[in-house]
Amino acid sequence: MPTPTGTTAPPQTKTLESRVPGSVMVDVAAPPVPNRSNPLRKPTHAEATSKLKTGMGILIFGLVVGGALFYFGFKILGGAALLFFGGGGLAIVLGRKDEVAACPFCGAVLDNLPKPNPDNVPRPVQCKKCWEYSGLQKGSVSPYNPNAMEERPTFRAPLAQRVVWPRACVQCGAEPTRFEEVSTSNLSAGFLVVGTVRVKTFKLSGVPYCNTHKKAVEMNTGIGNKLYLDWRSLAMMRRYLAANRGRFAE
Ligand SMILES: [Zn+2]
Ligand SMILES: [Zn+2]
């Protein structure tokens, strides 16, 4: 059979998983970064109304829970609940008309945006839907530098109970030569949430590293003691997201 000419092979995505003891890895590239910048805009009436409802809901929840705790003598806990939920709800209500923008990656609404940096250095904001980072500047958002590297693990990604690692050092992307563990041993909490499951402690083994790097990913908790995996390298975090699409329980 003649070899067809002029046809291009479909992009090679090796989905074959390989198992070094304790580590499941896959060859995966970071998804492309759209060349798109979206303007900041006033929220629509419907968006503002929906935020008003959400904010009021949280505020009322805080008043009820905080009030009940107070009533039964748990003054510190009650005060904390009032401050946390009351304050959070109020912030959403007051900020319901703040400018929003469409995520340059998935189009979802980016809201609760911080103030842009006065020197116009892009400020990272994360999409709650696709986890991608965009850079907020005066009047617009565009994809954040996909090769950004932070001093400490700060780029946040969701966690699954079992994850697949990109076959690359979690900091620099080089061929892995060592495998480490990342765990919650430095976190002191009553319970932690991974996806939808409650756990006491949690660890992932088989984190790929090259010879020179270490401590490039960290487990940390967010709201509701939910566990996240924080990364120093945005490029590697994006490869991790690509390797684990569909594994995260939302
Ligand atoms: Zn998005
Ligand atoms: Zn490395």
**Number of distinct beta strands:** 16
What is the number of independent domains? 3
Count of alpha/pi helices: 3
Instruction: Return residue spans where pLDDT drops below 50 for at least 5 consecutive residues.
Output: 1-16
* Main sheet summary: 4 strands, antiparallel
Estimated structural class: alpha+beta
Distance between the termini: 49 Å
Q: Which value, in Å, is the CA radius of gyration? A: 21 Å
The distinct ligands, each listed once, are: zinc ion
* Proportion of residues in helical segments: 10-25%
User: Globular, elongated, flat, extended or rod-shaped: what is the shape?
Assistant: globular
Q: Quote the beta fraction.
A: 15-25%
Oligomeric organization of the protein chains: single chain
* Strand order in the sheet with the most strands: 3-8-7-6
SSE pattern: EEEHHEEEEEEEEEEEEEH
Mean pLDDT: 88
